[in-house]
């Protein structure tokens, strides 16, 4: 009886690794930066999100926030940044503690 | 009332075209009165220098002499440096040279005195990005404005003033300075994790969207909900988009930012407001040590992921009991 072979899986993995390496090299050459760790500038520049990229399947409800989805961001200095979408996703407003004291001041547009 | 709140001393007055409130926590009522009066006097003095509505102000004098090297005070110099730095960091979305554009759409007098005048918009004499052409000589402390450009620091000057007053008051104790909604804090009231600060709902100004807990940080809100007026049937507001030199076409009512100080909060709030809901939230999320809340024109409220840390929730204030 012939043993089942895992050759197609290996080929797929090799192809995937090669694609990721090529994409990474391309990103580096294009001057993209990942906004993380030591590369993060003290004041990341103002900018405009220009497109979205999705490197993962749609996350399940229990998936952690760092699901790999990123947004491509162009800084005012022309530099391109990759920002994890979990950081850019809007979040709901949490509930105020019912026993919170009344505000001492209020913030609003200038008046 | 929390026992410590009985030791909060307050002064309220109008300055810089808005309502000011100074609050300091101390058991010494006499010292509080002296320090509050000194902080108020500081604010009045800064308004004399920085107001664009006072013809005798140092700012008006500078604006009246473009293309000439003008000596300026340390205060004006400091605010101008901050403004130019803010313009650089926001790619010009905050621009201290938009006074001409503001006046051209009708905001040429204190807001309380505007009467909804009609007639064509005045022609602009300034050029886009004029702030890049401002020449500073730090040795002589002189400023040369490019021809046609005039300065209005907007909320940055107010937030800077709030920070100055807070520094002055903090010699006595924990304090809060509210400059028309831009708020600087030093420390926290005794027994509290921070100052409870409401975020007004721009659609229902008498209601709050949430209560923040803020200690030794700044809060500011930029919005198109209040300073707006009608001219020839068109509604204008005071947030100018420097890219068009017209009121920003934003889908947001307001943006509230909590930052290391009120100046930073103000700078990023106005930038996010101009960028609009999608890009504005992403912009805020990309900034270091900044959290924000945006209210869109359909009433939707969205925040940056870490904003929850600023909200007075049971997780933040749970360990503190009322005394």
Listing every helix as H and every strand as E from the N terminus to the C terminus, the arrangement of chain B reads EEHHEHHEEHEEEEEEEEEEHHEEH
Query: What is the oligomeric state here?
Result: heterodimer
Strand content of chain A: 15-25%
Rg of chain B, rounded, reads 20 Å
Largest interface: A-B, 43 and 75 residues
Mean pLDDT of chain B, as a whole number? 90
User: Which segments of chain A are poorly predicted (pLDDT under 50) over 5 or more consecutive residues?
Assistant: 28-68
- Helices and strands of chain A, in order, run as HEEEEHE
Report the helical percentage of chain A. 10-25%
Instruction: State the end-to-end CA separation of chain B.
Output: 8 Å
Question: How helix-rich are the residues of chain B, as a percent range?
Answer: 25-40%
How are the strands of the largest sheet of chain B arranged? 1-2-6-7-10-15-16-17
Structural class of chain B: alpha+beta
Poorly predicted regions of chain B are: 319-323
Rg from Cα of chain A: 22 Å
What structural class is derived from the secondary structure elements of chain A?
alpha+beta
What is the molecular shape of chain A?
elongated
Question: How can the largest sheet of chain B be summarized?
Answer: 8 strands, antiparallel
Tell me about the largest β-sheet of chain A.
Answer: 4 strands, mixed
State the distance separating the first and last CA atoms of chain A. Answer: 84 Å
